Amino acid sequence: MYKILVVDDEAMICSLLEEYLKYEEFEVDTANDGLQAVSKCKLNKYDLIIMDIMMPKLDGISAFKEIRKTHNTPIIMLTARGQEYDKLFGFEIGADDYITKPFSPKEVVARIKAVLARTNQTNRALLKFGGLTIDFDGRNVLVDGVKVELTPKEYELLFYLVRNKGLAVSREKLLQDVWGFDFFGDDRTVDTHIKTLRGNLGTYRNCIITLRGLGYKFEYQE
């Protein structure tokens, strides 16, 4: 049975979706703001999250980024705003789908099933690059079958680069998405963590490529 987290500050929305999803035999949990969603994701494993954008305490975009630091859970963004910019921004940060209010509960269920089918086919939770294994759900990294002990920030940094495999990621983008909205520091912090992360990856250190004047990217070549 799939477990879904519904995050919305409107109690009626949470109740409506919970009712429909339970009817479709999903297990459902709810949260009323971004902070509560982040906390619940630290304690539970969800197969998919439906996340409203406009919420108190911590908005959906910020909560999305915090959750994606440690979990690769598929996330569908939900908002009352229908502007094209919001949709494009949602997809840019990695949202798996986007639904605009008002919506049909049946449409939401159909979108959820489509996203679950797509993500299960791609097996996003476990990736292998030669002898380098990245286990997102288990939060493990193995080099030639041996588990590598990384700091929490090194895990987050590696997972972020792997999820964006082949893409150039600036130091500023890494600071924003990995260290978070409340971090105070400069891009030398990124360089320091990259250096120690490479040291822990052994023969796979070259998978993290330095892009002079920009940042880094993850790329594996056999």
Structural topology:
Blueprint: E1 3-7, H1 11-23, E2 27-31, H2 34-43, E3 48-52, H3 60-68, E4 75-79, H4 84-92, E5 97-100, H5 105-122, E6 126-129, E7 132-135, E8 140-143, E9 146-147, H6 152-163, E10 169-170, H7 171-179, H8 188-201, E11 208-211, E12 215-218
Parallel strand pairs: 1-2, 1-3, 3-4, 4-5
Antiparallel strand pairs: 6-7, 7-8, 8-9, 10-12, 11-12
Helix pairs in contact: 1-5, 2-3, 6-7, 6-8
Summarize the structure.
The chain is α/β, with parallel strands linked by helices.
What does this structure look like?
The protein is built from eight helices and twelve strands. The longest helix has 18 residues, at 105-122. A hairpin with a 2-residue loop joins strand 8 and strand 9. The protein is α/β, with parallel strands linked by helices.
Keywords:
222 residues; alpha/beta; 5-stranded parallel sheet; 4-stranded antiparallel sheet; 22% strand
Q: What share of the residues lie within helices?
A: 40-55%
The 3D shape can be described as elongated
Low-confidence stretches: none
**Count of alpha and pi helical runs:** 8
Rg, please?
Answer: 18 Å
